[in-house]
Design goal:
This protein is α/β, with parallel strands linked by helices. The chain has two domains: 104 residues, 2-Layer Sandwich (Nucleotidyltransferase, domain 5); 113 residues, ATPase, nucleotide binding domain (Nucleotidyltransferase, domain 5, 2-Layer Sandwich). The protein is built from eight helices and ten strands. The radius of gyration is 19 Å and the shape is globular. The two termini are 18 Å apart.
Length: 242
């Protein structure tokens, strides 16, 4: 029987079935009926372990409903931080970032890592070659920057991420496009220069977009958070079966 992994982020939900560290088909949902979507996944098959990582707290009512779908339920949100401390991860980190760290520790043993997640927010996290978390930063994600420019200025339009922007712009629109994209590239290059010996891992919705524009050797792992949740689920099964 497989485990079901749920990642509820700022913008969308991602889910996957897993057998150990092997991920099956992934699902994406962007809407308001998050719980209904989760229950649609468990309608035909009940998971051995259900792991739900969420950027916002799961209500007691929804937690009870989820527990009815799977007695082996792990809720990972701001209320449950014990797992973070037990793995040497600061309790202020969200579980999506924690799962990425756990996955990189597994994939790149004895290697320092710089993890960059390109989502609603742009997060950068550092791991030493001993697997220790050494800190990280948060700033606005690419699409969020375009939204902020339009929202907080009376004259700037709302733009989408451009396909191939120049390094500098020559119109209002291209100045915005190159400003946002080039700004993120310069920002990331600065972080990578802090630890040039580290393995660099890009993840998140815009990871491939920026990886193609970087000169460094980069691993792009789009399902890094789900891989971390798969590890958590697998270790949970082993701990209760001992």
């Amino acid at each position: 029987m497989a485990n079901l992994l749920i990642e509820i982020g700022n913008t969308a939900l991602k889910a996957a079935w897993s057998d150990g560290m092997t991920l099956g088909k992934t699902f994406r949902y962007q809407g308001e009926k998050v719980m209904d979507f989760i229950f649609s996944l468990t309608e035909k098959e009940k998971p051995e372990v259900l792991v739900v990582s969420s950027v916002y707290p799961i209500s007691a009512y929804d937690e009870e409903r989820l527990h009815g779908e799977c007695p082996r339920l792990l809720i990972l949100d701001g209320r449950y931080v014990e797992l973070l401390g037990a793995r040497g991860i600061p309790r202020y980190l969200t579980y999506d970032r924690a799962a990425s760290i756990i996955a990189c520790r597994y994939l790149f043993r004895d290697k320092g890592c710089t993890i960059v997640d390109f989502g609603t927010t742009l997060t950068v996290d550092f791991i030493s070659d001993k697997g220790e978390y050494t800190g990280g930063n948060i700033s606005l994600g690419c699409r969020t920057r375009f939204k902020a420019l339009s929202r907080y200025s009376k004259v700037l339009p709302l733009l989408n991420i451009p396909d191939d922007p120049d390094i500098t712009g020559h119109t209002l629109e291209t100045s915005m496009e190159s400003g946002v994209v080039s700004g993120i590239m310069f920002e990331i290059e600065g972080y990578l220069n802090l630890h040039p010996e580290n393995i660099v891992v890009f993840t998140g919705g815009d990871a491939i977009y920026f990886a193609k524009r970087m000169k460094n050797s980069i691993f792009v792992i789009c399902n890094l958070v789900l891989m971390g949740l798969a590890l958590i689920a697998d270790r949970y099964v082993k701990s209760i079966d001992q």
